[in-house]
Design a protein that fits this description.
Layout (H helix, E strand, L loop, with lengths): L10 E16 L10 E18 L4 E4 L13 H13 L5 E6 L10 H16 L6 H11 L3 H6 L2 E5 L4 E4 L6 E6 L7 H11 L11 H9 L2 H7 L1 E2 L2 H7 L2 H9 L6 E4 L6 E5 L2 H13 L4 E6 L5 E5 L1
Parallel strand pairs: 1-8, 3-4
Antiparallel strand pairs: 1-2, 1-12, 2-4, 2-5, 5-6, 7-10, 7-11, 9-10
Helix pairs in contact: 1-2, 1-3, 5-8, 6-7
The structure holds adenosine-5'-triphosphate.
C-alpha cells in the first residue's frame, strides 16, 4: 500500500484488483449477524480503475454502461469518499469515474475494489497522507473485503474477513475466470448456507496445508486444496452452475473453484499457455471467460497528473 508521497494532483487514477478465495471457511453467524471467516484471499489480474477529481459535490459515473452499478450516493465509492472526508474532518468532495472490468455481483468483490481504490485515490488527490493502518481501519468499516483490496497479494483473512495479514505465496498461476450472465446475491448465498449448515463451527479452522503449499510454491497441491464452504449453497440457488462445473472438471485444470459467493467459476493453471488453451475450450462451449494472473498487487496509483 505505501507509496512515495507525491504531493497533491488535479487527477489521480488508482487500479484495484478483483479477489478470489483460495479457501473460504465459514462459521455460524454471530449475534450481530456477521459470519466468522477463515479465508485465504488472492488478488487476481482483473481490475477496476477509479479516477478522482476535485468537485463541489459528490458524484459517480462509469466510463461505459454496466448493469447493476448504482450511480447515486449508495455507490460504495461515494461511501468510501465520504468516510475519508469525515475521518479527516475536512470539507471536500470529488467526481469519481469508474472503468469497470470486475464482474458485478460475481463473487469477486468489485464494489470492495472500488471502495479501496477511492480511499487511496482521494488520499493522494488531497495529499492527506493517511497512514496505512488508518486506511485499513477505514476500509474495514466499508466492507469485509475492502481491506484486502488495499493489501493485495495473497493473505489470510479472519474476523469476518476484514482482518488481513499477508502470507507467503511462491506460486505464480493463471486463472480462467468463467463469467455468468446473471449475478448472485451474496446475502442470499449466506442465508442459504445457514439453512444448510446448522452445525457450522464458531471458529472455522485455519487451512494449514494450503498455507504450506502456497509457501512451497506447489501450484498443483494448491489446486487440490482449493475449497469454498459456500459452494453447496450457490449450487442450490443456481443449479445451472453444476453443469458448467462438470464440464470444467473434464478440462485437465489443476483445480476448479467457485469464486467467493459465486456465480463466477475459476480454473487454476500453473502456466499461461495451458490457461489460454483452456479459455479457448471454455469459449468454444459458449461461455464468456477472462484470463487473470495471480497473485497481483493491491490498489495502486497508475496515473497521477
Ligand atoms: P462480494 O463478493 O464482495 O459480495 P460481489 O463481487 O458479488 O461482491 P459487487 O460487484 O461488489 O458483488 O456488488 C455487490 C452489490 O453492491 C451490487 O448489488 C451493487 O449494486 C452494489 N454496488 C455498490 N457500489 C458498487 C460498485 N462501485 N461496483 C459494483 N457494485 C456496487
Amino acid at each position: 500500500m505505501s507509496e512515495a508521497k507525491l504531493g497533491p494532483a488535479p487527477r489521480v487514477t488508482v487500479r484495484a484488483p478483483a479477489k478470489i478465495n483460495l479457501h473460504l471457511g465459514v462459521g455460524r453467524p454471530r449475534p450481530d449477524g456477521m459470519h466468522p471467516l477463515s479465508t485465504v484471499y488472492q488478488a487476481v489480474g482483473l481490475y477496476d480503475d477509479i479516477t478522482v477529481t476535485d468537485a463541489p459535490d459528490w458524484s459517480v459515473g462509469l466510463t461505459a454502461a454496466v448493469d447493476g452499478v448504482p450511480l447515486d450516493d449508495t455507490n460504495i465509492a461515494i461511501r468510501a469518499g465520504r468516510a475519508l472526508v469525515k475521518h479527516h474532518g475536512i470539507s471536500a468532495a470529488a467526481r469519481i469515474t469508474i472503468a469497470k472490468c470486475i464482474p458485478v455481483m460475481g463473487g469477486m468483490a468489485g464494489g470492495s475494489a472500488d471502495a479501496a481504490a477511492t480511499l487511496l485515490a482521494l488520499d493522494r488527490l488531497w495529499d492527506l497522507q493517511t497512514p496505512d493502518e488508518e486506511l485499513l481501519q477505514l476500509a474495514s468499516t466499508l466492507g469485509s473485503d475492502v481491506p484486502f483490496a488495499l493489501l493485495g497479494g495473497t493473505a489470510m483473512g479472519t474476523g469476518h474477513g476484514q482482518l488481513v495479514s499477508a502470507v507467503t505465496d511462491r506460486t505464480s498461476v493463471w486463472w480462467v475466470v468463467v463469467l455468468s450472465d446473471d449475478g448472485l446475491s451474496t446475502p442470499a448465498v449466506y442465508r442459504h448456507f445457514d439453512e444448510l449448515s446448522p452445525d457450522a463451527p464458531n471458529e472455522p479452522p485455519v487451512p494449514e496445508e494450503l498455507l504450506e503449499a502456497l509457501a512451497e510454491g506447489y501450484a498443483d497441491e494448491v489446486g487440490d486444496l482449493l475449497s469454498n464452504d459456500l459452494w453447496e449453497a450457490a449450487r442450490d440457488l443456481r443449479p445451472d452452475l453444476v453443469d458448467v462445473e462438470t464440464k470444467l472438471r473434464t478440462m485437465g485444470a489443476d483445480g476448479v473453484l467457485l469464486s467467493g459467493s459465486g456465480p463466477t467459476l475459476l480454473m487454476l493453471h500453473d502456466n499461461v499457455d495451458a490457461a489460454r488453451s483452456a479459455a479457448a475450450e471454455v469459449a468454444a462451449l459458449g461461455y464468456r471467460c477472462a484470463l487473470a494472473p495471480g497473485p497481483v498487487a493491491g490498489a495502486h496509483v497508475v496515473t497521477y497528473a
